[in-house]
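Homework help thread (please don't just give me the answer)

Our assignment gives two proteins as sequence + C-alpha cell strings and asks us to describe the second one. The first is just a warm-up. Here they are:
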Amino acid sequence: MMIRIWLAFIGACPFLITPALAQRAAENVVRSADDAFGASVGDEEIGLYGSDDVRGFSPISAGNIRVEGLTIDRQTGFTDRLVSSSTIRAGLAAQGYLLPAPTGIVDFSLRRVADTPVQSFIAGYGDFGGYSFAADLQARLLQGLVETTIGAGYERNNSGNGTRDLAWTLGGTLRVLPSDHVDLTVFGDYRRDIADQRWVGYFPAGSFEPPLPSNIRKDVGQPWVEQSGDNYNLGVIARYAPSIAAIEVGIFRSVSDPDLQAGQFFTDVALDGTGDYRAFLGPGSNFASTSMEARAARSLIENNRQHTLTLNVRARDREQEYDGGVDFNFGSVDTGNPPLFPKPNVSFGELTRESVEQVTLGLGYQLQWASRGELNLGIQTTDYSRRIETPGDAPLQADADPTLYNAMAAIDLTPRFVVYGGYVRGFEEGPVAPSVALNRNEAPPAIETTQVDAGLRLLMGRITAVAGVFEIEKPFFSLGSDNFFKETGTVVNKGVELSLAGPVTDELQLVAGAVFFDPELSGELVSSGEFSSDPIAFGDRAVSLDIDYRPSWAPGWSGDLSVFHFGPQNADTAGLVTIDARTLISIGTRKQMTVRGSTVVLRARVDNVLNAEGWDVFGSGSFFLQQPRTFVLSLRSDL
C-alpha cells in the first residue's frame, strides 16, 4: 500500500503547479547552523543542546522561549506547519537579545514566503511502520502587500519501543506589509493528538539499573494508556520601525487541552526483570496561557557608535487544571512480557487549579560600536503571583517582586577575534510540593537564578570557533528530613563550551562542538549523606560532530554524518548508580533532482547505526529505554 502511495506521489509531482525556487526540499540543518550549540530545520536537529535542555537546565522553565525574538509562555510545542527552524543562543550568540535569563535562549522562526512562492509536498516512511504526509503552500497577493503560508499534515510516529503517536496538524501565517516600516503577522497552528501512547518508565528496587528487556522493540505498556487532545498556538506580531525608532508588540495564546491524563511505569524493578506495573488515569486537563511582550526602542547614532534605549513590558496570565486522577497497581509482572490488563472503570476526582499572573517592566541599553565591540545592560522589575487551589485544602499563594539585571559586553580585539563576558540574574517558578510531602501542593516562592559566562570567538578562514566558560546557580527543592518539600540546597553547574562551524571546503560543511560539565549539589541533604553531591541526570560531557559532504563529482548527491557522544550520568540521588557513556552515530544521504522544472529531494537516514542500547534517566529517577536503530526515508518536492 505504502509503495503505491509513494509511486503516485512521485508521479504527480511534476504536474501539480508551475516551477519555483526550492525551499522545503533544500532544507539542510548542517548547512544552516552558525555554531554547535543547537539548531533545527524542519524535522532534523543537531548540536549539543535541545529546546528542553541547555547547559543542564530547561529554557522553558527559565522563560527563554522566543518566537521571532519575542517571549512567549508556551504550553505546547510548535508544529512544522508554522515554524521553519529554531536556534539555541548561548554565550556570545545570546548577547544581542534583550533582557535574557540564565541557561540559553531558544528562538523559533516562523515559516515565511520565499522570493518566489513555492508549494512543498513531503512524505516520509520509517522502518517501524510509521509514515507522514504534509503539504506547505505559499502565496503572495496584492502586489506583495500580503503574504501567506498554510500547511496541513498527518503523521503516525512509531517509536522503537513499540508505541505509536497518531496526529494531524494544521498551521500558517498571514503577513501584511503595507510599507517598508510596517510588518504585521498573524499566525496559528493546531495539533490534534488522536492516539498518543505513553512510554513506560522504570523505577528500580535498589541502587542498580533495571535489566534491559530481551526485546526492546516490544511495547510493554497497556494499549489503553494513551492520550488524545487538542493543542494550539495563536499569535499576532506587529513591528513599526521608522528610521531610528522601533516599536514591537507580540500577543500570544498557547493551549494544551488533553482529553485524558495517562501514564504508566514499573516500580520496584528487580534484577530478574520483575516489577509492579502501575498506571495513572486522570480526567481531561487544561494548560492555557495568554502572554505578551511590547518594546519601544529609540536609537542615537554618533559617528560609528549606535546607542539604543529600549522600554520593555512582558506579561502573562496562565490557567492550569490538572490532577484528579487515580493510580492503579496491578501487582508484580515480568517487565519484559507483562500480561494485558482490562482498562479499569474509574471515577475521577476534582481538578487542582493553578493560576499565575506576572507583569515585568524592563529597561535595556545597547551600545554597538563598529569594530570596537558591544555592550548590553538591562534591569527588570516584576510583579508575580501564583495561586493553587487543591480540592479539600485551603488555597495556597506565593507572591514575589524581585529586581533582576543583566550586563554583557563583547570586545573586538581584531576584526577576527572577539572576547565576551556577562552576568545575568533570572527568575522562574519553583516546583509544587508532591502529594507525599506534609505541605503537599504548596506553591514555593519563585526562585532567583544566576549565570556568569565568558569566552571568545575566532574567525579562522571560513570556520568560526567559539570557546566559553559558564556557571549557573539555582536553588534545589526536595523533601527535607522533616518531610516538608522546601529549598534544601543549591545546584551549580559549571562548564566549558567549544564550537567549530563553517565550510571546510566548498564541498564539506562542518559543525562540531563539545561541552564539559562540573555539576555540584550542596545543602542539608548532601551534608547528611542522603544525597550525592552529583545531581541526578547530569553528565560530565557531551560531544557532537555533524558534517555534510556534497561531492563535485556527483552533482545532486550529498552525504551526512552525525556523531553524538555523552558521558556517564548519575542515575540516583545517592550517587550509587551510573549510566555508562554512549555514542550514537547517524548517517544519511540526499539526492536532489529536477523533474519537469520542479525540485525533488529524496532523503534517507539511519539513526543509531550501531544499535547502541541502554537507558536514559530523568530528574525524577525514572529510566527510559534508548531508542534502537531507526531507518527513515522521505521525499520532498517544491513546485
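The one we have to describe:
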Amino acid sequence: MTICTAGRTSARQAATATPGRDSPTRIRSRSREPNILFDTPGSITVDTQLPLLEMHTSLKVDGGPDQQLFFGQYAVNFGIVVESTGRDIDDVTISHINAQRFNYDGIQLCAKPNAGQGTCDGTISDVLIEDSGGHDNGSHGVFVYGTDIDGVEIDRTNAFGNSAYQLDVASSLNAVGSIKNLTINNSEGSLGGISAILVSAGTIDGVTFSGVSGFFHQNGIEFVGNDISNVTMSNTETLDNTNHAILFRNFTNSSTTGSVSNVTINSATLHNQETPRTPQKGILFQEGTVSGITLNDVTLGDMITGLEVQTNVLSGLTVDGMTGRTVNETIMLNPTTSAANLIIRNSEISSIDGLGSGAISISHPLFGTPMIDSLVITGNTIEQSDDGAIRIITQKLNALLIQNNTIRKGTGDDGAVILDINGDGSNNLIKGNEISGNAGPGIFLCCNASQPGSVRVTDNKTFGNDGLGIDLSPVGVNNNDAGDTHAGINGLLNFPEIVNEAGGQVSGTSCASCKIDLYLSDKDASGDGEGKQLVASTIAGANGDWSVSVCNFSFPANPALTATATLNDGTSEFGPNFSLTAVIHCASGTPSASPTPTLGPSQNLQGDLNCDSNVDGLDAILALAIASGIQQSPIQGCPAVGSGSPKFGDVDCKGSVDSQDALAILAYAGGTSPVDQQQPCTDVGAVLPS
C-alpha cells in the first residue's frame, strides 16, 4: 500500500503504524489532494482491522486499475471505513475497491461517529464511489451514513450477497434528516436481504438513477422519506423481489402522511421468474399525497399488481406504455380523498389465466374515492381481466375520457368497463373503443338513483359480449317508461325505437331533441343491441321523431339496426333491434337521401349540377367552386352552372349561386335533414321544370 499525505502525519509514520483490531490506525490529512493507493497485486486477506481512514476533506482512495480485492473472512468488522471524528465529510473519492466477507459493511462512510448511539452525526457532501463493490458482508455492501447528505455519486458499483442492504444511502436522523443530489449510475445490488438499494431520509430531493438493477431481495429499490421529490429513474431493472420491485413509502408505512412528487420512471423492466408469483407489487407509492408521477415504457413480469398507489390525494399521474401480465390489478389507484389529472395510455396489459381483479382499478378499497376529476384512459389493449378491464368507483366523477381502447376476452360477469358513480358528475365520455368477447356487459354504469351521474357513450364497437352492450343499473334491459321518469345513472334515459326504413331513410321515435346514434346491431340475445358499428347520427325533433339516411353505409347480409339516445350528457341503453328485411334502395345505386324521380327528356334534378341524375357531394363542390369564382369547364349535355334564368345551380332561388346553395345540396346528399324550398322554388332533389 502506498500512502501519500501531507500535514502533521508523514508518509513514513503512516506506513509504519501498527494496526490493531480494536484501535485501528487513523490516517489524518489536511492536504487538498492526498492519495491512498493500494497497489498490491492480486487480493489481500485481512486478519486485522484495515486502517480506518479518518479524514474530513479531500480524500482519494484508489485500488488501482485492476480493482483491489479485500477479504475479511468474517474476522474483521469493516472493510474500508472513512470516518471523521467531530467533523463533517466533504470531497471523498473511493475507486476500484472491492471488500468482501466482513462482519458488517464492505465500504462505509460515517461523519462524526457516535459510538454510544450507533449513529453518524455529521454531514456528508461531494462523495464519489466508482468501480467498486461490497460482497457477502454481514450488513451492507456500501453504506453512506450521516445526518444530511448532499452530492453523493455512485458509479459502476456492484454489491451482492450482503445480509442487509447492498447499496444504502441513509440519514442517521431518519425522519428529520435529508438527502439531496444523489446519483447512482450503472450499478447493481443482488442476492441479499432487505433491499438491493435503499435511500432513506426525512427529506429526499433530487435523485437520479440510470442503469440501476436490483435482484433477489424483499424490495428491489426502496425510498423511505416523509417528503420525496424530484426523482428520475431510467433503464431500471429488477428481478424476483418478494415484496416490491420499486417502493416509495414514509417512515410509518402509512398512506395518510408524507408526500412524494415529481417522480419520473423511464424504461423500467420488472422481471419475475418465481412461482408463486412475486413481487406483490411492481411499483408501490404509499404516501399521504402523491403528485406529478410519470411512468414511461414499463415492462412487467408475471406479478400480483403492476402499479399501486395508496394515498389520500393523488394529483397528476401519467402511465404511458405499461406492458405485462398480473394476477390482480395491473394498475390499482386507491386515493381516499380525491384523484385528479390522471392519464393511462398506450399500454398492453392482461391478467394471468384470467384471474385478475381488474386491469385498471381506481377506487378506495372500501367505499370509493370521493372525487375523481380529469381522467383519461386511451389507446390501451386490455385482455382477460376478471373483474372489469376498467373499474372506477367514486362518489363524484368529472371529465372522464375512455377512448380508443381495445378491451376483450374478460372473464368477469360484472362488465368490461364498470363505472360505479355514487354521486353526481358530468363531462364524461366513452368513445371509439372496441369492447368485445367479454363475459359480462360491455359497459356497465351504476349506481346512486338519488344523485345520478352522467356518462356519454358513443361510436364504440361493442359485440360478442355475454351481457348488454350498454347496461344501466339495475342489470338487464330497462324498458322504456311513459314520460321517462325513471331515476338512476344517466337518468335511465329511454332508448330510441326504430319504426321504419324506406328509400334509405331510417326513422323512429325517441326523447325530444335527443342525439340519436344508429348502429349496426350485433343481434344480442336480449333483442336490444349490441352496437357493433356506428352507421349514422342525427338529432330528434321537438316531438321526438327522427329520420336519418343510411345510404352511405355498406351493410352485410341480413343486417339489423339498433340505436341509442343521448341527452344532457347521458346515454341510454341500446334500443330494440330492427331487422332490414330487404335490400336498401338508394338513388341510382349510389348514396342519396331519397329515391330517384323518373326524368323525362331534357329534365334535371334541382341540385344535380353535373347532370348525372343524382344529387351528391360532387354537385355541392361545383356550386362552391362557382361561388368562389373558380370557373368550371362545361359538362357535355349539361347547362353551365350559373347560366340561364333562373340560374342553373341557384337552388334557393335567391339570384346567385353561392355557398348557401352548396350547403343545401350537401345537406340533401348527406340526408341530415330534408331540404324544402319556399315555393315557387323547386325542392332540392325534385325534378326541375323542363
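TA reply:
I won't write it for you, but here's a hint about the kind of observation we're looking for: The first strand starts at residue 2 and ends at 4.
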